[in-house]
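Replying to the earlier thread about multi-chain prediction with a worked example.

Input:
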Amino acid sequence: MDATRLPLGPTVIGGAFLLIVPFVLPDWMKFIVTLAMAKFVAVLAVALFLRANQVTFGSAMFYAVGAYTVGFSVKWFHFGDMVVLLPVGALLGAGMAALVGLVMSRYREVFFAMLNLAFSMMLYGVLLKLYWLTGGTDGLGVGVPKFLGYVPPREYLRDFLYYTTLGVAGIVIYVVYRFLASPLGFYLRALGDNEIRIEYSGESVRHVMYVTYIVSGALGGVSGVLAAFTVGHIVPEYSFWIQSGDFVFVALLGGYASVLGPLIGSIAFEFIRTYASKYFPNEWQMTLGIIMLAIILFRPGGLWAIYESLASRFRRRSSEVPGA
Amino acid sequence: MREAAILKTVDLTKAFGMVMAANRINVEIHGGELVGIVGANGSGKTTFLNLITGYLTPDHGRIFLMGEDRAGLPPRVITRLGIARSFQIPQLYTNLSVLDSILLSLAAQADKGTSFWGPLYRQPWISEGMETLERFGLKTYARRPVSELPEGGRKLLDIALSFALRPKLLLMDEPTSGVSIKDKFQIMDTLIKVVQETGLTTLFVEHDMEVVQRYGRRVLAFNDGRVIADGGPEAVLTDPEVRKAVLGRA
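Result:
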C-alpha cells in the first residue's frame, strides 16, 4: 500500500457515511461509534510503530494522560471545554512522550514493547494509589462538556460529541497521512528494514524513533480527551496493559498499511465486543481471540487488506468490460 | 598550495586481540582520484573502510577528512561530512520501493531527512532520483520493491544510495562480490562510467586483481593490516610481494 496517497474513494465515501449515519442510528450505537472513533486515534499511534516493525504494549499511558487531563481540569478548575482541552491533552501527551521517549527511543522490539508496558503500569499504579488526587478505582467524573463555552441541550449532546469526535478523527487522519508521506515517515518504515543504512545516510535512527514517539504521545492524549468526554467517567484502567493490548489488537484487526485501517478496525472492534458480550457474555474474549487468529492466519493485513483485494478485483473486472 | 587531501590517515592502527587488522596505515587520497584497494581475505581492507567511516574506533593514529582530524566520530557524522560508503552485503530497505530508497538519500542530502510535514515525493527529488537510477541502470525498477531486485541490482542500488548523498568521497566495499563473472565487468563499467562522468573521488575495495587492474588508476595493496604497495596498477600488481600476498604465488 502506498502511504503517499490517501485513498480518496474510501475516505470520501467513509466520511460521508459517518456524517450521515447519526441521523439513523439509535443513541446507544451513536455512543459506540463515537467511542470507536475516539479510540481509533490511539490505535493510529500504535499503527505508526507497527509500520516500523515495533510493537508497544504501553500506548495506553498517553491515552490515560489525555483522559486525566480532562479529569483534573474538571475537578480542580471546573473547566470542561472539550475544544480547549483537546489541544491541551495533545500537548500533555506529547510532553510526557518527550520525557519517556528519551529512554524509549534507544530500544527496539521486545525491549521497546516491555519497557512501554512498564511505564504505563507505573502510571497505572500512581493513578490507583493516589486516591486523594485521582479518586483511585472510583475514578473521576467528567460531567457535561462545553464546546467553546456553549453547553448543548441534553438531547443533542450525543450528536455534539459524535461530530466533534468525527471532526477530530478527520484532522488526525490528515495529519498522520502527511506524517507518513514525509521523509521521516518513510524513514520510520525503513527503520524496520535496515537501521545501518539510515545511519550511513547521515540520519539518526534514534531521532526518527523519538519524533514518532512524541507524535504517538500527542495522538494518545487526543484520544484520551475524546474518550473521557464520551464515556463521562475515567478510571485508572485507561492506563492498564489490557487497554494497550486492545489498541494493538485493533491495529492488527484493521490493518496498519493505511491510515484508514485502524478506523475500520476500531469500529469493528467496538461492535464485535458489544455483540459478543451480549450473546456470549462469558466467552466474548474467546470470540475476539478466534477473530484475531483468523486475521493472522488468513489476512495478516487486516480488514484493510480485505477491502483492498476486493477493490482491486472490482477494478480489474470493470477494466475488462469490452470497449472500456 | 595544493588543496588538503580529502582523506589522510596517519599511523592508523587497530588490533583485534592479537590480530593487527590495521597496522600504521598512512594513506592520502586527493580530489578526483580513483583508487582500488586490493588484498587477500583478512588483509584489513574492510577494517580500513570501517575505521574511516567511524564504525570502528582506531587504537592509534589519526584520520583527517578535508584537513581536519575526525577520528572517533560516529558513522552518521562522518557521512554528513561527505564520506559515503556502500557495503559488501548490500544494506537496503527491502520493504520500500527502489525510488523510495533513492528519495530518502536525496532527502538526507538536502538535510530534510527528518522533516515530517512536507512530502518525500516532491518533483525536484523525483526527477533527480530517476536520473540517478538511470545512471545506475535501475530506472526500470524504480517503482518495484527493493526485494525484487536481482543481486547485481542490489549491489548497484546500495552504491546508488550512497552516490545520491553527493559525497566528497565514495567508498565501495567489494562492489562486485557475490555477482556472477559475467555481470562483474558490466557492474564495474556502469560504476566507473558514473564516477568518471561526475568526477567523484572514489575508493573501492576488491579482492579480484583483474578488476583492480582494469579499473584502478592507483592501487593500494594490503597485507596483514599494512599497505605493502601504493602506485599505478601496473607497478603494484606486478610487484612480487603483492602477488605473493594476494595470489599466494609470485
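The mean pLDDT of chain B is 91.

Feel free to reuse this layout for your own posts.
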